[in-house]
Amino acid sequence: MIGRILGSAAVAIAMLSTVSVTTASELSGPVSYVIPFGPGGESDISARFQQPFFKEKFGQDMVISYQPGGGGAVGWASLNGLNGDGQTIMGVNLPHIIIKPAQKDVGFTTEELNTFYMFHYTPDAIVVAADSPYKTLADLVADAKANPGEVTMSGSGKASANHLAQIKFDKLAGTLTTYVPFKGTGAAVTALLGKQTKAEWGYTTVGAKQGDAVRMLAVAMEERHPLFPDVPTFKELGYDMTGGAYRGIALPNTADAATTKMWSDMIGEINNDPAFRQQMLDGGFAMLDIDADGMADFMKARVEEYLNDAREAGLIK
Amino acid sequence: MEFGQFLAALTPLNLALALFGVLAGTVVGSIPGLTATMALAVLVPVTFAMEPASALILLGAIYTGAIYGGAYAAILLNTPGTPSAIATTFDGYPMAKRGEGDLAVALACFASVFGGMVGALALLFLAPPLSKVALAFGPVEYFWLSIFGLSLIASLSNGNLVKGLAGGAFGMLLSTVGVAEISADIRLTFGSQTLIGGFGVVGALIGLYCIPVLIDLVAVPDRHLKVEENVKAVRIGDAFRIAMRSKFNLIRSSIVGTLVGILPGAGGSVAGLVAYSEAKRTAKPQQKFGEGEADGILATESANSATVGGGFIPTLVLGIPGTPPDAIVLGALLVQGVRTGPAMFTQSGSIVYTFIYGLIIATILMLPAGLLIGRYAYKSIVTIPKAVLVPTVGFMTIIGTFSIRNSVSDVIIMLCLGVFGWVVAKFGFAASPIVLGLILGPIAEQGFVQGWTIGAATKNLFGMFFGRPISQGILAFTLITLILPLFLARRKKKANMEQAS
Amino acid sequence: MKHSSGKAGGQFGSLIISAFFVLAGLVTLYDTLSYTDRDSQVFPQTVAIILIICASVSFVVRFIKPTDNGGFGEGIWWRRVLLILTMLATCFLMPVIGFLPAGVVAFAGGLIAAMHDRWTLSNILLYWGSGAIIMVVFYTLFKFALHVPLP
Asked: Whole-model pTM?
């Protein structure tokens, strides 16, 4: 599936390169980029990476602010009430914007959000401490089979990408592990490093950030991450599992088509800057280039996939 | 750790940035609702154009200043400017009310500089070993730490323990409103969209502490703070003597602050509360905590300033930010191309050391800057006529609460909580236990749920909660804090009775 | 919850607040029944039970042993009410007429509420003038220096 995404992304890149982007003049001042979480998470870090490129390419400041609450719900519920003149954008995250409205009324629906670009994703990965007895994924699976429930795995929140991945993997491998939810990836990693849990359901970004302190057992990508040539994919090991948490940007739905197009082109241009791509890959992210035109199809597929996973996991009815 | 990096931190530009940062941070911190996080987030793009080390010095200085600035509003308006200054209100405001606000401000300044230095020096010399503290603290330890913090309710409930406990429990219930942090349910919103984000700590602090003060202020014509006959600008000499007398309190509180600062799940508010609790526990009989005791201010302010340096230890060594401002500095480092984490001290050592020296310089600059700003803050608060002071503070609470999440409903929630807090306080349900519940509730809940999950999985629940050495230590301290006062009171009573007979 | 600040008020207010806390605990217990995840139930249920016990004890103690402690004390009610009502009005006006004009309402309310001296021309000019400056300065600081999207 990621292959398909990357394929369509390649087409998008080809299209982008032929269209000249001269839209910066339409911005009338500093742009407000709202992150509906606190600082320090993957959403924040990737926005920080975009910030200098935006200033350099389009001459305007990109001001990042944080609006945490309700696991992002506060921000997204307020998004469509904001001014749609193109001066305000907000980060969006999958699976959050799909799972949350499906669980309960949180003040927004997936379809209401005017997501115009998906620019990266963080592939799921199983991470263990460097001195863990689990050298390979097989070690972990063997332990989980021998001692059902005793393998504890930390992760960020419940009904999150980490949690869905844990449930899915348990099903694929026929194991029973215990998922311990923490407040954000940082806390989940702390628990792992402190030996509070035996492993962590995290992302490739954890491997990039923690370096030698951790070992990744497998990553949920089609092909190995360029930063970690030695870490196998789940697919190689026989588990048909790809995916992770996707991140993009949305405008208020009052924004007109021209503004949406302008933004899609601008973020696309940043995303195609080799220096930006390199910085993101070094951070452990995986690039994604879904622009405004391809968004409907992309979201449709993701909604189906995530809702299906969540339903099977018993997280939604 | 060569001398060169120290000199690099001393360039005129870096010194100017440190001074500017401390001044700006102090102002930011003193305005309730304006947080260091917000100021840093806005300034990060400015720092892209700078040398990495200079940028970091500026960010670190603002953070340091903001934590100290929180004390002004706490002392002069009974409103913690930042959550770190919650415990500063306990003794700072009573002190200001009886006319010694100038002394309180100076005490806070000395304590902050001392605590800030201890934290920064720990960061400089002991960062790698101390970072292990962050890892040694598991869910259960956080759970017991929050219980220890909650034990303070016993002494904050103005002599009515049952009411205090009820308030604390109510505060904990408030903390659960909205989307649950680590489980996915939506709780206690009763279908309202407004409540989905829950009660933000900063907004709740403004409401519960500041609004009651305003309501009481307008109702009677008396002055806000009592003014002594001959107002001395800031009583530096007195403050210094008191601080010297309480050096053990300062040292203990700074160490507590550094250690709590290292814990990614705790932060300045918890550090202040724990240090306050310890200072109170070891108090001499004649000291009256809660009624304007200098040691209360010294303990809180040294502890919360020490969390700045302490918090950077896991941020820099493990790449795990302890507080939101730490997270922003970490993000700025990443964008500057500095890799944090285990290898950082060796790979990007020079930038990191220049940053730490910058933090130390900023802390030292806080002494003159803090005393100077403190002088004007105190003078203006006591001299401004009430008819201007009240609407100004009222306007600040509105704009400050709004800007936390750009939300009007947050302001309305803040006002409602304020009126509620004012009413219940009039009948013996003090605001502080509610605030303690609100702040420590999530730590307790997450620690408990995670500890329970892990304990159940490994089939060792008892060992999980009672068998770990750090947990046992915290539990012991909690029991001592709770039982010792009862024991002493009984012995005193007995002695009195024997004397009488 | 607005009753006179008489001596009986202390007794009465405590009873009402204790009853309110008991009610809050019961409502919480009811609300937790709808949660899907056991993890989200444990904590609120435990705390609600503690709240109900403490508030009940407080209620019963006050009932058996009435004391006169508590009460709203001296003070002028219209000033308190004016202050809070104008601040609330500001919140509701903010999205409609913009932050600064709405802020003037709260400021004016606070000023009038807190004005215990005689109005003279000089202090009218001084107070309102300084008020205008303070508001514009804060507005500028938040809107343009800190990029807060004030309406």
From this structure: 0.90
